[in-house]
Write a structure and sequence with these properties.
Oligomer: homodimer
Number of helices of chain A: 4
Order of helices and strands of chain A: HEHHEEEEHE
Structural class of chain A: alpha+beta
Distance between the termini of chain A: 52 Å
Chain lengths: ~140, ~140
Amino acid sequence: MTSTEPSGGLRPTPQRQAVLDALSGVDDFRSAQEVHELLAGEGSGVGLATVYRALALYADHGLVDVLRREDGEAIYRRCSETHHHHLVCRTCGATVEVEGPAVEKWTSAIAAEHGFSDLSHTLEIVGTCADCQGR
Amino acid sequence: MTSTEPSGGLRPTPQRQAVLDALSGVDDFRSAQEVHELLAGEGSGVGLATVYRALALYADHGLVDVLRREDGEAIYRRCSETHHHHLVCRTCGATVEVEGPAVEKWTSAIAAEHGFSDLSHTLEIVGTCADCQGR
DNA sequence: TCGCGGTTGACAATGATTCTCATTCTCAGT
DNA sequence: ACTGAGAATGAGAATCATTGTCAACCGCGA
């Protein structure tokens, strides 16, 4: 049971590395399309379909986080593998990772109260960050 | 400042009523497409574009809740106008509305700590309900 | 009754995501 | 190092939710 492989125990192809590197190089969320453009701009020539496949694969294995923009477009971010939430600025897109033991406990309690098990949850906070408030 | 009109102070056209009625008739989330089919099945003949417009309008006015399915499709539900969250069964789709003062406070505190203002947040809990656990 | 702004419906357009399939590459075993 | 089997890739077509366009329509006040 390999638990902490460099790339999550997945076959390390150049294309997948490129996708992961692209995500690692920025600290906010990017859509699959944006990652593709980013790679194209570097001459990587990685196909769009491959970007989608790689992102889905990594998301499956917990190496990247997936969220949805308000318009439904999926956005991805390389992140720590521990459970956490995001605080996102609606103007500039800046993202802060936050942990919330209080929330974890609350959700568990509520779910148990209603007989739910095998839980997962999503919490996103959207707001206007300090820098964008005057604008 | 009309605060509790029957239809949120919006012009009550037959089409909009039909959309709202369709949503009121079920107690879980439905996509715009599903609402449209539902209406078509009753012979209402309401256009798809109109369904989208009505849903967007009601969502804007807080008469319906909007979420995203995992595949990104938007789903809507008629619900109370107070802020609340949802506990959803991943197997049967059953939905429970829950309130979480603790969560509200926590998000405000975290956001303030990082200088964010004008907040909104989304929290969804997905799990397996008691009825679906043995299956 | 007439005119007007808001609403509707049919259909085209958009855009993200997925599928297809022939080609290419990786990995394990020899 | 060589080879076969199966996974991965790229290009483009296909899918599908959602939005835009625009002419026809409706109810309401003048």
